[in-house]
Design brief:
five-stranded parallel β-sheet, 33% helix, 23% strand, alpha/beta
Length: 383
Amino acid sequence: MIVPAKIGFIINPIAGMGGSVGLKGSDGVEILQKSRELGAVAQANRRVQEFLSNLSIEKKNLSFVSLPGIMGGTILNQNGFNVELLHSSDLPVETVLFETSPYHTKKAAELMLQSHVKLLIFVGGDGTARNIFEAVGTSLPCMGIPAGVKIHSSVFTTNPKTAAELLEIFLEGGFTLRESEVMDIDEDAFRENRVLSKLYGYLMTPYVPTLFQPSKMASPQTDHEHHNQNRMAEWIIQQMDNSGSEYYYLLGPGTTTRAITNLLQEEKTLLGVDLFYKKKLVAKDLNEQQILEMIADHPTKLVVTPIGAQGFIFGRGNLQLSPKVLTTIGLKNIIIIATKYKISTLPDRKMRIDSRNLDFDRKFTGLHRVLVDYGEMQIVDVV
């Protein structure tokens, strides 16, 4: 039975804006300004709309507590939900998109805590999760809806639809609580061209294993893992030779794809997408528009690897590989590579997709061939 409860709701309206334009996040005034200049479009409300449209709970049994304007109140009201709006002299009545900051998120979370909400739902990425943690710690159950560029933390549901499922389970009382990791990129390691997630703390989350994503896990720095990566890299390079002058090759983010460029003695943008032709670097760290322009009149293959432990192929850290880009490349030209160790860490040995476009996700789901060693393929289900 559904038990009515006050549900806190906070949107980080700038979450995910840096993704399609090739930036590595949306945190900070300078990054946000650059996102604007590159034509980034706000995405968070699309994720919220997907969440709300999947709610099967009667609206009379839902009572949201939120902020006026774009941090939650407007879209909840537009969808006909009961909303208690919190006001504070520290927060503007109608928050302007590009004036939002971590301060606003933390202040909003503090107000939720004072309002005794039973669950705090927030929409954003790892930076948003860090802000929520700094405000409430483990004193309030929380749940993240993934909308950011970086989503390494285990406080997020796999997508907005599963967030709707989880809210219903929460209101029915069919859950346990656990401390879930708040992770973000270690910036010192990033400056050294290494992708490492750093633990910042824990949020208390209602836990249903099939609905939450695990924390990102870095590839182990072992001889066996490096050998496996190099064997796959050798095979990809052979395909480059076989395709001659016919294909461009786009290499997605990650240490697994970097093994290819190491053997080619070329540079690799660790968190970016780079373009190669005849085994030579043509352009690096491309955003969505640059990719579309460069591959418009040339057949292209894309090499990607899933996020370690999470299994996401698209929608986590590679938003510049948008559905438009992927459709232009063609599904038959997407090459998925993963070491055998990475395959073994996948939830239910399945990969996931959350491209922010439901129609494309439906087309891509199903069984896919995955390169796991030199010329060796495994069939893996993408859900």
